Amino acid sequence: MNIVVFGPPGGGKGTNSRKISEELDIPHIATGDIFRKEVNEGTYLGKKIEEYVEAGDLVPDDVVNKVVEKRLSGPDCEEGFVLDGYPRTKEQAEALADVAEIEVVVNLDVSDDVIINRLSSRRVCSDCGEIYNLEFKPPEEEGICDKCGGELYQREDDTPEVIKKRLEEYKERTRPLLGYYRDKGVVVDVTVQEERPIEEVQQEVLEKTKNALDIG
Ligand code: ADP
Ligand code: ZN
Questions:
Q1: Is there an atom of ligand 1 within 6 Å of 129 CB?
Q2: Helix axes 61-72, 90-99, angle to 10 degrees
């Protein structure tokens, strides 16, 4: 069960890939989460990529590919994995194809206004990574994670200027990748609109993913 969740920043890649990971019991691998952790901990890798992440630029392919290849070789990935935020360039997709065969790409089809709204009101748990939204999915207690009691924070790259940059990168470098996966016949499309409840989108994502994997 090798799955990629694909879509623009703020389109729901994180929320939906976490759901798939829970339901199918396979690890959720988010390159953005991995990078933020390295930056916060001030590791060697963290220092090398800090500038890119903070500016909303893509981290260089060779760095990202090495990190992902290592992660996918872990024993917990034997039954499969959900990738969130990777691949983001043609080079990354090709490097991924060398180490794993992707069976499903869930394409979250999202409009720009949804993106900007979501990102600016997004909050994330500093402990478990659960994603909240002050408008659509607020925590029960302000600033506190419902799941684990951890503290919620706003990502440093969720500012209007950096959001704009991330969107540009997505349109220029990442979105064209869809064609590559469409040619392989592995893409399922899910439309995300402002009015659609998160649960409904998650349900559709799960159903379509299971169908594509032939596990009903
Ligand atoms: P989003 O999709 O909401 O922009 P992510 O958490 O997936 O956020 O990524 C945050 C940042 O981490 C990106 O802006 C980029 O700097 C870096 N990053 C994450 N994944 C990749 C990748 N596959 N290739 C290059 N850079 C990446
Ligand atoms: Zn939490």
A1: no
A2: 30
